[in-house]
UniProtKB/TrEMBL annotation:
Top-level taxonomy: Eukaryota, Metazoa, Chordata, Craniata, Vertebrata
Domain Origin recognition complex subunit 5 C-terminal residues, every copy: 314-443
Keywords: ATP-binding, DNA replication, Nucleotide-binding, Nucleus
Keyword Mitochondrion: no
Pfam family, one: AAA_16
Listed name of the protein: Origin recognition complex subunit 5
ORC5 lid domain mapped to chain residues: 216-283
Origin species: Anolis carolinensis (Green anole)
Length: 447
């Protein structure tokens, strides 16, 4: 029983369409009934909205291509000014009407020009007796355009006096996009997020021909088990599925397990996928690096510990400030001379041997230090001299706001503020690595 029925299109086209848009059947059949027959006038404008990767672009493109409807598809991110947008639409329209590969360039400055040129270009009967669809993808960008553009597009049918329907694809709801001067309201259509079952179905679809459908579906099931709690983006999941599939097949290829040994295959892949989640998904390493690691069978273990800090982006000097603060918090003040004075003369080694202290400073936790000490350390660890400008002080304030530093006992007017550094050793090592500073060499505990 075919899902889609429409007097206008041959049945095999509709069956083909159905196979191309799994899990979006209800939206597509709504669209089919809105579009009606080719020569019918449809709604002046539609507003399709839903989260990213809910298939808006894909479904719309597939629908228009499969049914061979005359359309213009523009991305409002690519065409970031109204001029680029209007010219691109006219360009594609010309292509539709003349079928020439390289139609002459059009120049269009204002929306009035656009209407005039639009009418001119769609003069030919082939375009007059059927609906033309103008799709504006990423329509939320239209908010940045001149105020007349969006209301203009919504009334394009009336202004051009042509059989045209404008479809806006957007990730935000209409209420946020609606101009406050009022306009013709588009007809809304919602694309809900895919459920885990939907994702399973869509992803299982692209199984490689050399493996059975069930084998691939079992793999997708495991993949979703690991990644679904953190990621629902179809594009991302599809990429991860392709990236890790060879690892899943390994036991089968090597003849250690057969395709139905699900338990065994699961054991083999699960820890691997969890590692992939820590590194590839968070973009700590690129996919190609990940593939290389897989080939060398190397453990991405040395990358461990980075993941927790990947989200902290600090300005260059702030990183040094934080490093200085860490050193001040964990090194005893008496050792500063040893570490940070470049020519400290001869200090007898004897003096500097570590006494057999039972506890290390790292076990005791961070100690408060005065601002001056931190600045002194900072000057010695950054290569070029920095003046204590307002900029540095404001960066210190930012570090306090981010709770990487804490201000302790500020009411002591005589001594000035004292700080404490709150970050862990792993964290500061990750930060140091980004500025090529070997912090371990400067820590008394690791001497
Ligand atoms: N129903 C579906 N069947 C197959 N692939 C789909 C489906 N929906 C989305 N996709 C794929 O998911 C990806 C993201 O879809 P896209 O249309 O770009 O999302 P959106 O435009 O809503 O952000 C695309 O690569 C597309 O091919
Ligand atoms: Mg899209």
């Amino acid at each position: 029983m075919p899902v889609f029925k429409h007097p206008e299109y041959p049945e095999e086209t509709l069956v083909q369409l159905e196979s191309l848009v799994p899990c979006r059947e209800s939206q597509v059949s709504t669209l089919l009934s809105i579009f009606g027959e080719r020569h019918h006038f449809s709604f002046p404008s539609l507003f399709i909205y839903g989260h990213t990767s809910s298939g808006k672009t894909y479904v719309m493109q597939t629908l228009l291509k499969t049914l061979k409807l005359p359309h213009v598809f523009v991305n409002c991110i690519e065409c970031f000014t109204s001029r680029l947008l209007l010219e691109e639409i006219l360009q594609q329209l010309q292509h539709l009407s003349t079928k020439e590969e390289d139609p002459p360039l059009v120049s269009c400055d204002t929306f009035n020009d656009f209407i005039r040129l639009f009418k001119q270009t769609t003069m030919i009967p082939d375009l007059q007796n059927q609906t033309i669809y103008v799709i504006l993808d990423n329509a939320e960008q239209l908010r940045k355009f001149e105020a007349n553009i969006l209301p203009g597009f919504l009334r394009l049918q009336e202004l051009t006096d042509r059989n045209v329907t404008v479809v806006l694809l957007s990730e935000i709801v209409w209420e946020l996009l609606r101009p406050n001067t009022g306009c013709l309201e588009p007809s809304p259509l919602y694309f809900p997020d895919y459920s885990i079952g939907h994702l399973q179905k869509i992803l299982s679809h692209d199984h490689p021909p050399e493996y059975s459908f069930d084998f691939y579906a079992a793999y997708i099931n495991i993949l979703l088990g690991v990644f679904y709690p953190v990621c629902r983006d179809l594009k991302e999941l599809r990429h991860l599925a392709a990236l890790n599939f060879s690892k899943y097949c390994e036991p089968v290829v090597q003849g250690e397990a057969n395709e139905r040994d699900t338990r065994r295959l699961w054991k083999n892949i699960e820890s691997h996928l969890k590692k992939a989640m820590q590194t590839v998904y968070l973009r700590e390493i690129s996919s190609s690096q990940w593939e290389r690691l897989q080939q060398d069978d190397g453990e991405p273990g040395h990358l461990k510990g980075l993941s927790a800090h990947a989200h902290v982006e600090l300005p260059y000097y702030s990183r040094f400030l934080l490093i200085a603060a860490y050193l001040a918090s964990y090194n005893p003040a008496r050792t500063d001379k040893r570490f940070f004075v470049k020519h400290h003369g001869k200090i007898r080694k004897m003096n500097f041997q570590k006494k057999h202290e039972k506890t290390t400073n790292h076990l005791l936790g961070p100690k408060p230090f005065p601002l001056d000490r931190m600045l002194a350390i900072l000057y010695s660890i950054v290569d070029s001299r920095v003046a204590p400008t307002a900029n540095i002080f404001s960066q210190i304030t930012s570090l306090v706001t981010l709770q990487l530093l804490t201000l302790v006992g500020h009411d002591d007017q005589l001594n000035g503020p004292r700080y404490k550094c709150n970050v862990s050793l792993d964290f500061i090592r990750a930060i140091s690595r980004t500025v090529n500073f070997d912090i371990i060499k400067y820590l008394y505990d690791f001497l």
